[in-house]
Write a structure and sequence with these properties.
The complex is a heterodimer of chains A (465) and B (71).
Chain A: H1 8-36, H2 39-54, H3 56-69, H4 78-112, H5 117-145, H6 161-169, H7 171-190, H8 193-225, H9 235-269, H10 274-301, H11 319-327, H12 330-359, H13 367-371, H14 374-394, H15 396-400, H16 405-424, H17 426-429, H18 439-460
Chain B: H1 6-27, H2 35-70
Helix pairs in contact in B: 1-2
Classes of the chains: A mainly alpha (465), B mainly alpha (71).
Chain lengths: 465, 71
């Protein structure tokens, strides 16, 4: 029950991420629905945009309520709050226009049976303006409470960029899994295969994003630890968040992998297996519960204004510190490091074979045959997410402060998400023996190769550069 | 027919678990075993289980696609 907001500030933090991060995700799906001309998916997206438009009301009310609640709190600057509020009015107005246009489109569809171009253009235009304004409002909102972002970089052992990126990134899997669940359930009810494919792709993408979210979170912990003046930040609260974040990471990973396998199978079977779809649904629901608790515990760390229950006090009452001390021992570290290297071998071997076919070095086989190898690469990624997190926990501080760790973590999600293209592109899959792959596929293949080469080199150079 | 029957798979997995059990027995002091052997047994055991699971999963995925192609 502690997840139910009991203050305006808490409600504002919960609800305000949907019109920003949520709208970005839904707009992406809407563009995908427009490009594939999937009527059912367009209508679901319009309903979601309409719902997000309605959320403008609680976002506004809770924002005003929060302003009153923190008015006498010296932690918050009244001028910064005023700037945040002023721009948020424009953002919420644009959101309301996008939401109203989306709902009108749905309403007129009931009588005419088709969606209009004018409605589409208004939704896209107002939605786009909302996203730009929400990015500014969101940044200003984060800066209200997260004063650690303004500390002198020269005095920091771990860069605050990690904290900043974590604050932005963590909302994508959280809000993403919530909205994808809505989309996925709608797809199952409407028996819409296009929507099922988009939902499974989103589950896979958010599964991939779980890894950099966890890593930036671990780095953010060190960025906060460097400063003793943060008396309000408790290591026990951080550890409570980390425990649940680990469960969320594995939940996201499992959901993403099962979702990908079903996308892969769909390429050959042209239909989905109900068992696999319901496995994805069950896993996503469980992961959603983990993510809700992770988000709640994360919010408690640096937001004293929303705390109702007392924070935990014993930093050793959680698993993460115990896993850290165990994995720091060579007898537990080396076996998982070995599995990590096997994982990279699988990933790179698979990627290289697929990329060589796309580039035209192996034209004698159709792409559909090479595509059969991809699950091996996905298994390699899965092995490495599990073992990589264990290895990271052995010495987080050293890893996150190594020069080559940044490009490694930057290219990891790019390389993994780009691989999804190989299972999604119809024109690529239809490339027969002796035929050239489409030009777009070659660009994606180059990106994939560069990304995974950087990831492996970045990891290998960690102890030496 | 699978490449490796269920019985053979079970035997290989059981052997891997025995290797890991011996390693853990050494680590937790139930038997005398050098650190090198503790590591070696654990690495081999875990590698067999993880890579074996990958192979079986890969086989199952491709088989499900093959069966659909044939039907």
């Amino acid at each position: 029950m502690h997840l139910i907001p009991q203050t305006w500030a808490h409600l504002h933090m919960l609800v305000s991420v949907f019109p920003s991060v949520g709208l970005l995700i839904v707009m992406g799906v809407y563009v995908s629905a427009l490009s594939t001309n999937n009527e059912g998916m367009k209508r679901v997206c319009l309903a979601l945009i309409g719902a997000l438009g309605v959320l403008a009301i609680p976002t506004y009310i809770s924002g005003i309520g929060s302003q009153g609640q923190v008015a006498n709190n010296p932690r918050f600057s009244p001028a910064a709050i005023a700037t945040h509020l002023n721009i948020s009015y424009a953002a919420l107005a644009a959101l309301a226009v996008a939401g109203a246009a989306a709902l009108y489109e749905l309403w007129q569809y009931r009588s005419t049976g088709y969606l209009t171009k004018l409605g589409r253009n208004i939704v896209l235009g107002a939605g786009g303006v909302t996203l730009v304004l929400m990015a500014i409002v969101g940044e200003l909102g984060w800066e209200l409470d997260h004063q650690e972002l303004f500390l002198d970089p020269a005095k920091q052992m771990t860069s605050q960029y990690w904290s900043h990126v974590h604050m932005i990134l963590n909302h994508f899997p959280t809000v993403g899994i919530t909205l994808t669940l809505v989309l996925f359930v709608s797809a199952l009810v409407m028996k819409n295969d296009g929507m099922k494919r988009v939902s499974l792709t989103l589950f896979a993408i958010f599964g991939i994003l779980g890894a950099p979210t966890y890593v930036t979170g671990a780095a953010a912990m060190w960025a906060l630890k460097d400063f003793t003046q943060y008396g309000t930040i408790s290591q026990a609260a951080i550890n409570a968040h980390r425990d649940m974040a680990l469960l969320s990471l594995f939940g996201l990973g499992f959901t993403g992998v099962v979702a990908y396998f079903e996308l892969w199978r769909y390429r050959y079977l042209k239909r989905f297996s109900d068992t696999m779809l319901y496995l994805v649904l069950t896993s996503a629901v469980v992961t959603f519960a983990f993510m809700a608790e992770t988000g709640h515990r994360g919010g408690q760390i640096n937001h004293p204004e929303i705390r109702i229950d007392p924070l935990p006090v014993d930093a050793n009452a959680f698993w993460s510190p115990h896993i850290e001390s165990l994995i720091n021992n060579v007898i537990w570290f080396v076996p998982w490091q070995t599995v990590h290297f096997f994982g990279y071998s699988l990933v790179f071997g698979t990627v290289l074979a697929v990329v060589l076919r796309i580039f035209g070095f192996w034209k004698s086989v159709p792409f559909s045959a090479v595509h059969r190898l991809l699950p091996l690469g996905v298994m390699g990624v899965t092995m490495n997410i599990f073992t990589g997190m264990l290895m990271l926990m052995a010495d987080t501080f050293r890893y996150v402060n190594e020069v080559t760790f940044v490009p490694k973590m930057f290219m990891l999600p790019i390389g993994a998400i780009a691989v999804l293209y190989f299972s999604l592109s119809d024109s690529l899959f239809q490339t027969k023996a002796g035929e050239d792959a489409p030009a777009t596929a070659k660009w994606v293949a180059a990106l994939v190769l560069i990304a995974w080469t950087t990831v492996i080199m970045g990891g290998r150079l960690l102890p030496y550069v | 027919m699978p490449v490796m029957s269920g019985r053979t798979t079970a035997i290989v997995m059981a052997l891997a678990l025995v290797l890991i059990a011996i390693s853990y027995a050494g680590i937790f002091g139930y038997m005398t075993l050098s650190t090198q052997l503790q590591l070696l047994f654990q690495v081999i055991g875990i590698a067999i289980i993880v890579l074996g699971a990958c192979c079986k999963c890969f086989e199952a995925l491709n088989k499900s696609v093959d069966q659909a192609d044939q039907s």
